[in-house]
Amino acid sequence: MTVLPKPAPGAPALRIRDLRKTYDNGVQALKGVSLDVQPGDFYALLGPNGAGKSTLIGIVSSLVNKSAGEVSVSGIDLATRRDEAMRQIGLVPQEINFNLFEKPLDILVNYAGFYGVPRAQALVRAEEELRSAFLWDKAKVMSRTLSGGMKRRLMIARAMMTRPRLLILDEPTAGVDIEIRRGMWSTLREINAAGTTIILTTHYLEEAENLCRNLAIIDRGVIVEQGPMKALLAKLDVEGFLLDVEGALPAALPAIEGAALSAIDDHTLDLDMPRAMDLNRVFAALGEAGIRVRSMRTKSNRLEELFVRLTTAGVGAADGTAQPEPEPVA
């Protein structure tokens, strides 16, 4: 993996100040968004459908015209030095957008040429990126013959051809199975470890919790929460556990004041309890009921819980208040 040059000292990889966008139909997609993404970070941008994520990414990648505000990439102002700023960015959109009748090697070389990379240098880079993406053996086959996961990896390899300081991934694992998704996680960790700052949007909250160190949650055009992943998750006052028990569960489970206990199956309990509650009290109540806990593990839905609490996710569909985000057009 190629080590990328470091950004200017003190300059965020991405700096956004009071960013606003109002579409011609009057929809306010962004209402004063401000955030900083530091160099080398792995940053999650989360939000329900229509929250403003696509508009924000569209503005940063110069596909959408802002209404007001400032955007800079590695200290380079997007409005006044657009071409220079765009050379710092690699974008992996959600939809497959390369020519399926081109070969992967040609796709990468032609993309690099569009950004002024000499062909000889582009060929070297293309081999390097295809090998990193485990696609070198597919370099000269028609891209339409690639699997869905291979196509996703090819899009990441293409974005890396310009050696971007900032890689933006819009739902990169959408529609792929869990095995392919976890393989892509490994690829993204390697890219990040080599020095590339990554911004990830995803609907797989487990993905964000596993990969990202910091996050921002956007809802209805405003940032409702942002900061370190661990610090935000720590704000939850409820913890969830899965308890594996020995033998079969009794017909009636004990009532534990302040905690919610339910059976998933004959050998597994689902426990939700306040963070301040002493687990020993729970184990004591279970022991009195003849239930012996063999092992326990934390449920992996903490970020999902935080997400639902802070946003209108799951609400708009029921009450009609959710507004679809306009397509990202200028």
Automatic annotation (TrEMBL):
SUPFAM superfamilies: P-loop containing nucleoside triphosphate hydrolases (SSF52540). Signal peptide: none annotated. Pfam families: ABC_tran (PF00005). Residues 14-245 form the ABC transporter domain. GO terms for molecular function: ATP binding; ATP hydrolysis activity. It comes from Luteimonas marina. Keywords: ATP-binding, Nucleotide-binding, Transport. The keyword Hydrolase does not apply. This is ABC transporter ATP-binding protein. InterPro entries: AAA+_ATPase, ABC_transporter-like_ATP-bd, ABC_transporter-like_CS, ABC_transporter_ATP-binding, P-loop_NTPase.
